[in-house]
Design a protein that fits this description.
It is a single chain. It contains 13 helices and 2 strands. By secondary structure, the protein is mainly alpha-helical. It has one domain. Helix 2 packs across helix 7. It is globular and about 55 Å long.
Amino acid sequence: MSRVAELGASKELLINLTLRELRGKYKRSVLGWSWSLVNPLAMMLIFTMVFRVFLKIGVPKASPSGLSNYACFLLCGLLPWNFLGNGMSGSMGGLIGNANLIKKVYFPREILVVANVASWTVSLAIEMAVLCVALMVFGNFVVPWLLPLLFLIALQSLFVVGVGLTLSVTNVYFRDVQHFIGIVLQLWFYATPIVYPISVVPAHAHIFGAELPVLALYRLNPMVRFVDAYRACLYDLRFPSGGDMLYLVAVTAAVLAVGYMVFGRLEPRLAEEL
């Protein structure tokens, strides 16, 4: 709690570091902040061609909104996933990239991770705003669901902060972490219903001679619940299930607590390791 209080007392530093991250994100870029829209649109086109046109992946009809559009279905899961990936990747380099600052002056080191995630939260909010406009063009009146959407963005931001705290400090001690996480993110992406509906996942399957509850194990993945919750608000126009929300709140609290514990344990020797 003392570390949280110390972080709260450094609000001005957190704001300045977040603004620095935002300014430097697309510095010397011709398109600037337009890249925050170009990148997900390019990925949407690629995945739509591969999974919808070539592999014939079907998209479920939204209930109760009645919308059936693969591009909108895809973006409702792709934007939260990009936020997770960018937040994790940025957090891993947050401490190493600010080694000189860490060695010169004392401040709560976790602010570097929080500022990085906060900058990507701003990007996610912009992308979600554009997606909401597109959904309304297709007939989904998402305005009543903006408050649940903001809660989901805040909850996922805390989840990414927890993951980022663990990755940032362990990457200082073990530089292999950044290479390992690249592989993990690829596996995690296809273990999340982003390019396909969750309905294609069987309830049970025989694996190595044993019958496993595949769907139950699959839903332990917190990103499955996050993507389902985002799609419920934006694509289906309904509240996410209470069970999913309770699970996400519990997992986020656990991940955040573990992140702070690991960071607090390894943080005292950061300057020496850097």
